[in-house]
Amino acid sequence: MGVALLSGKRSKDPGTQVGACIVTEDKKIVGVGYNGLPLGCNDDELPWDREGDFLETKYPYVCHAELNAILNSTKSLKGCTLYVALFPCNECAKAIIQSGIKEIVFLSEKYSGTPTDIASKKMLDMSGVKYRKLKTNRKTIVLNFDE
């Protein structure tokens, strides 16, 4: 989960920085991603707003962390576990299911009970993808670049 959180810091989204990390059954990292624009799209030329006319918001342009981690993967994801900061939306759930990922470990259920959350859980349950909230005693990870 630490790698997922750290990758989320790369996002240019001023409101939501989500990261994802995919690992094999033997805990080898095979994919990492964060929410951001597709390759070749300039972060300064497309909007990051959350409200307003649809085409003037971030929503039609941003790729979620889960999808980026899947697209950035280095091998087959069958049987892998996805660690992600925020419970996946219904669109990401489709990609997770299709990729063969078998478990999701998440930190936040910020959108619990919303239509996208309900649809996501419905598809994950139907397809047998397990999901669980991370339980840990560790509350912080500190990175220090001073020598």
Q: How are the strands ordered across the major sheet? A: 2-1-3-4-5
Give the radius of gyration: 15 Å
Strand content: 15-25%
Overall, the morphology is globular
Number of helices: 4
The helix-and-strand class reads alpha/beta
Count every beta strand, where a strand is a DSSP E run of 2 or more residues.
5
Q: What value does the average pLDDT take?
A: 94
Low-confidence stretches: none
Instruction: Bin the helical content.
Output: 25-40%
H-E string: HEEHEHEHE
Main beta sheet: 5 strands, mixed
Give the termini distance in whole angstroms. Answer: 25 Å
Describe the structure.
With 147 residues, this protein is an alpha/beta fold. Helices cover 25% and strands 18% of the residues. It has helices at 2-8, 65-71, 90-99, 115-127, and strands at residues 19-23, 29-34, 81-86, 103-108, 130-133. Strands 2-1-3-4-5 form a five-stranded mixed sheet. Strand 1 (19-23) and strand 2 form a beta hairpin. The longest helix is centred in the last third of the chain and has 13 residues, at 115-127. It is globular, with a radius of gyration of 15 Å. The relative contact order is 0.17. The model has no long low-confidence stretch (mean pLDDT 94).
Tags for this entry?
147 residues, 25% helix, single chain, 18% strand, 5 strands, 5-stranded mixed sheet, alpha/beta
Summarize, please.
This protein has about 150 residues and is of the alpha/beta class. The chain is about 25% helix and about 20% strand.
